[in-house]
Write a structure and sequence with these properties.
mainly alpha
């Protein structure tokens, strides 16, 4: 793949990651389904970008002094996915998040049944939840776009 196509795909993947977080922030079920459908074969890349966002936002929360405990994260992820995902996927995301947040990678993998999209949902919901602890919704999305090098 030529270099410009690689850069274009990297930007497309970043845009999908931002769109996923935005859909969770807005509780936009249709937008979420559309963003997930756009992932195609780039699940690992989208997951990677969401992990970067999660790390960035976690550090941002720590820097601001906002108190954010593991129980807050579990509640926030559960709240973010409620009414946006089908119940069985919602349950899987919340269950995987609980294991993942405790460092139980093997259990998280088992609970996801190997479905990498569960991780995408989990990370996007977490980013939406933790991001709103320190940013207003539009400010969060704008910050993520800037942080990953996407034009406004």
């Amino acid at each position: 793949m030529p270099e410009t196509e690689d850069a274009d795909n990297a930007d497309r993947v970043k845009q999908i990651a931002v769109t996923l977080v935005d859909a969770y922030v807005r509780k936009d079920r249709d937008g979420l389904e559309s963003a997930v459908a756009a992932i195609g074969g780039d699940v690992a890349e989208v997951t990677s970008d969401l992990k970067v966002f999660a790390t960035f936002l976690t550090r941002r929360v720590q820097e601001t002094g906002v108190v954010w405990k593991p129980a807050d994260a579990r509640e926030a992820v559960a709240s973010a996915v409620a009414d946006v995902l089908d119940p069985e996927i919602e349950f899987a995301v919340v269950t995987v998040w609980e294991a993942y947040s405790l460092g139980e990678e093997e259990a998280a993998e088992r609970f996801s049944n190997g479905d990498p999209v569960i991780y995408v949902h989990m990370l996007a919901a977490f980013c939406a939840a933790i991001g709103q602890a320190v940013y207003k919704p539009t400010e969060l999305i704008s910050t993520l776009r800037i942080a990953c090098g996407l034009a406004e």
